[in-house]
């Protein structure tokens, strides 16, 4: 793995070589990921894996023609060949009036913000093994657990460097630590499985392995003896660990490329109230130690905290430079990219602000409904917003969470679901995308 300084220098050298070879403009991005993973099962070591990979990508422009290419070999001779091939590809590419680097006057000029994304502590494999065993032991110790799919622990580091021919150069790194466990309860055809995990930038922010394992075991046991549910229209309440998927569908509907292609169910909703006025959804790339925090976007633009939904109203699209040009707008600092291909658009750390009602009060008046803890399949149409997914969880009767349920389907349309959504007050920041418990009235439930 190159140091940050070496990575930035390598990206800048590649851009300079492209310009010297005839490119009108160019950018280069370097990315490296290294991780150590240890997994155990039934108290015995199952696997120790160390992976490390790096990639550098070059994008060049000749007039309105562009091409991109990437390589994992950092040898200077290989990179010289990379430049030649990319230039040749660009000369043969079709013209694209929207392609180009980000506007020069919008580039990040100041020192990138410090977000505390790196941890100096790097656990040895023996420490990872101990944490994995501790998580699995805690899960297997829950009464009712009969088997295990294993436990695991990992640590890793990633680095990104970006350079452009019109004046941007920057690099940043981030570390990660995680613990997980997955176990089974019951036996035969009545067996149920569930899991728990936690990830953090810094080891000291990670949940204790005992707590992670106990959650996995308790979740699996709670799913035993599921009951049948009659079909009907009823309230559905989403557990925070899966409710974030609903915000993921919102994000997919407001990214610039989808809007430019006119392939989004939210195409005509800009500036309109699509949620209740109590709902605000924030994208915050500058959260210290955030799992998706970054000091600049994939094109070298500054990033900032912004409301995607404010008091229920859709405030704007998520735009990279190309989609912004196509729509006649300005880029928003949401460009993302890998080693090859043009940038796209994506979010960073997203959360829905908490409501004022406790989870218990949120379901207090529910005569009959479903508390969903797992979603299955991907039955969502991003163009129409039609939503239909397999689910499991628990029956709600007269405000109380009762028996487990499984093999059900929940359905609706995302526009209606957003309008009928109510957040509880239990927001916790555990993931890259965080929501409180969510209630949606009027969903169609088909029993198994």
From TrEMBL:
Q: Which GO terms describe its molecular function?
A: metallopeptidase activity
Signal sequence interval, chain numbering? none
Instruction: Give start and end of each Metalloprotease TldD/E C-terminal domain.
Output: 231-447
Pfam families per the record? PmbA_TldD_1st, PmbA_TldD_2nd, PmbA_TldD_3rd
Question: Could you tell me which SUPFAM superfamilies the record lists for this protein?
Answer: Putative modulator of DNA gyrase, PmbA/TldD
Q: Name one GO cellular component term.
A: cytosol
Q: Where is the Metalloprotease TldD/E N-terminal domain?
A: 34-90
Task: Tell me where in this chain the Metalloprotease TldD/E central domain is found.
Answer: 120-224
Using the UniProt annotation, give all residue ranges assigned to the region (Disordered): 94-125
GO annotation, biological process: proteolysis
Q: What superkingdom does the record give?
A: Bacteria
Concerning its family, UniProt says: Belongs to the peptidase U62 family.
Record-given protein name: Modulator protein
Q: Species lineage, top-down?
A: Bacteria, Pseudomonadati, Pseudomonadota, Alphaproteobacteria, Sphingomonadales
């Amino acid at each position: 793995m190159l140091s940050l300084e070496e990575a930035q220098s390598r990206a800048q050298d590649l851009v300079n070589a492209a310009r010297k070879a005839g490119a009108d403009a160019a950018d280069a991005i370097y990315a490296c990921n290294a991780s150590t993973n240890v997994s155990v099962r039934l108290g015995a070591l199952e696997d120790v894996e160390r992976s490390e990979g790096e990639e550098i990508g070059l994008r060049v422009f000749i007039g309105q023609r562009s091409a991109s290419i990437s390589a994992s070999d950092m040898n200077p001779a290989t990179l010289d060949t990379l430049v030649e091939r990319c230039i040749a590809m660009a000369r043969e590419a079709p013209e694209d009036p929207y392609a180009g680097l980000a506007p020069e006057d919008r580039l990040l000029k100041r020192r990138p913000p410090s977000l505390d994304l790196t941890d100096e502590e790097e656990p040895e494999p023996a420490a990872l093994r101990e944490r994995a065993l501790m998580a699995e032991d805690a899960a297997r110790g829950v009464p009712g657990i009969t088997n295990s799919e294993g436990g695991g622990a990992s640590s890793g580091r990633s680095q990104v460097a970006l350079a452009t021919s019109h004046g941007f150069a920057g690099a940043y790194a981030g570390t990660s630590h995680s613990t997980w466990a997955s176990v089974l309860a019951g036996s035969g055809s009545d067996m149920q499985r569930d899991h728990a995990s936690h990830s953090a930038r810094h080891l000291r922010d990670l949940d204790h392995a005992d707590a992670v394992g106990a959650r996995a075991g308790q979740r699996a046991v709670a799913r035993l003896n599921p009951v049948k549910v009659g079909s009907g229209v009823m309230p559905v309440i989403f557990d925070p660990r899966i409710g974030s998927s609903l915000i993921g569908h919102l994000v997919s509907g407001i990214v610039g490329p989808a809007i430019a292609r006119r392939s989004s169910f939210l195409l005509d909703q800009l500036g309109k109230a699509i949620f209740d006025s109590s709902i605000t959804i924030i994208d915050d790339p500058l959260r210290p130690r955030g799992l998706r925090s970054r000091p600049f976007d994939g094109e070298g633009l500054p990033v900032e905290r912004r409301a995607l939904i404010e008091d229920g109203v859709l405030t704007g699209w998520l735009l990279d430079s190309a989609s912004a040009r196509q729509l006649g707008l300005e880029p928003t600092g949401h460009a993302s990219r890998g080693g090859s291909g043009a940038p796209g658009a994506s979010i960073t750390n997203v959360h829905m602000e908490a409501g004022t009602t406790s989870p218990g009060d949120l379901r207090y008046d529910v005569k009959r409904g479903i508390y969903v803890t797992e979603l299955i399949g991907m039955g969502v149409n991003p163009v129409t917003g039609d939503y239909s997914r397999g689910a499991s969880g628990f029956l709600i009767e007269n405000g109380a969470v009762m028996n487990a349920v499984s093999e059900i389907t929940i359905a609706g349309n995302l526009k209606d679901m957003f309008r009928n959504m109510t957040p509880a007050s239990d927001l916790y920041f555990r993931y890259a995308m965080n929501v409180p418990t969510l209630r949606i009235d009027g969903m169609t439930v088909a029993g198994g």
